[in-house]
Amino acid sequence: MLNFQSSIFNNFMRVLITGGAGFLGSHLCEFLVNKGFDVVCMDNLLTGDISNIAHIRTEKFLFINHDVTNYIYLDGEVDYILHFASPASPIDYLELPIQTLKVGSLGTHKALGLAKEKKAVFLLASTSEVYGDPLIHPQREDYWGNVNPIGPRGVYDEAKRFAEALTMAYHRYHGVDTRIVRIFNTFGPRMRLHDGRVVPTFLRQAILGEDLTIFGDGMQTRSFCYVADLIEGIYRLMLSQTNEPVNIGNPGEMTILEFAHLIKNITSSKSEIVFKDLPVDDPKVRQPDIQRARSLLGWEPQVSIEEGLTNTYLWIKDRIQRLMEKGKK
Ligand code: NAD
Ligand code: UDP
């Protein structure tokens, strides 16, 4: 069971977050600093941005620019290592296939090695992509997945599957206290406008009055989780005693066509919807079964998709406005 009281009180528990300057990592940095942790953010800014963490100004926060596929040296004690470094959007990992495979394999190896050395709890940011184009729906943690290892998406899916296997090997063989979170599609402020993921893409297109580009016929489904819910789930998992993988995501499933209409409603946009080619191996369905998170962590999402999207819309609108003022969009 969870033991929040004894874990938080901690007088200066120290956390290392790899990939901490990215979308999710920066929210985690901020959340854990606010909880009183000393936070070390390690990132090589491959797909992240220093502006995501520039506002965290406290002596409890340290940024280190480092590529975690190389040996990680960190002075002093570390209680938790949260390994989030990896390109994560389909266009990022299609453009950076080797870096994606390296950070999932070599990077995870270095981060686990550090956890073993420091006797730290290790938490791997895994993904619903380990289920590939799933043949079981919704996806439970005991489903082994349906991944094409040689397709273009395979670089990400297999890197994460290897990272899970390595994490379990360090747990079983070296006794490292590990956690694995399988994150389903998450959205919120600080997503890059051009990262290609459907949430920032449709919001940007709707705001600018451009066509909303649906890939395929739009009948494929996704289940979108607001970032604040995800971070709370990860925090609970980190403090739990759970070594097996846990899905964290919002079970509210919709087709991409329904999602496009929702975006038009929320933004009051007159954009047209157009249809483009479906990328290779694009999963047809995706929905987390969150029974394990409910029973082990007492977690379930609290933020509705409408509320989460409205917050994200306002953030992206503001970002576009600032960029336009600076002369680029
Ligand atoms: P992101 O691209 O915003 O963040 C990833 C961060 O990792 C970036 O700051 C990048 O610079 C850093 N990074 C990449 N390679 C590195 C390296 N070799 N050394 C140091 N830093 C490196 O992506 P995100 O959406 O914040 O995803 C974060 C993690 O969560 C990833 O591991 C991703 O696979 C996982 N995840 C995210 C989602 C989601 O919906 N956002 C879903 C499933 C899994
Ligand atoms: N998608 C789309 N139009 C876009 C971007 C994405 O129709 O401009 C689709 C994509 O093909 C996928 C879904 O939206 O079916 C979610 O894509 P995203 O890249 O956000 O995440 P993932 O495919 O990793 O779930």
From TrEMBL:
InterPro entries recorded: NAD(P)-bd_dom, NAD(P)-bd_dom_sf, UXS-like
One Pfam family here: GDP_Man_Dehyd
What is the superkingdom listed in this entry's lineage?
Answer: Bacteria
Q: Which co-factor is required?
A: NAD(+)
Query: Which pathway does UniProt place it in?
Result: Nucleotide-sugar biosynthesis; UDP-alpha-D-xylose biosynthesis; UDP-alpha-D-xylose from UDP-alpha-D-glucuronate: step 1/1
Task: Return the broad EC class.
Answer: lyase
Q: Which GO terms describe its cellular component?
A: cytoplasm
Instruction: Give the bilayer topology.
Output: Single-pass type II membrane protein
Record carries keyword Nucleus: no
Could you state one GO biological process linked to this protein?
UDP-D-xylose biosynthetic process
Its localization reads: Golgi apparatus, Golgi stack membrane
Principal location class: Golgi
Return the EC number: 4.1.1.35
The family note in this entry says: Belongs to the NAD(P)-dependent epimerase/dehydratase family. UDP-glucuronic acid decarboxylase subfamily.
Could you identify this protein by its name? UDP-glucuronate decarboxylase
Q: Which organism is it from?
A: Vecturithrix granuli
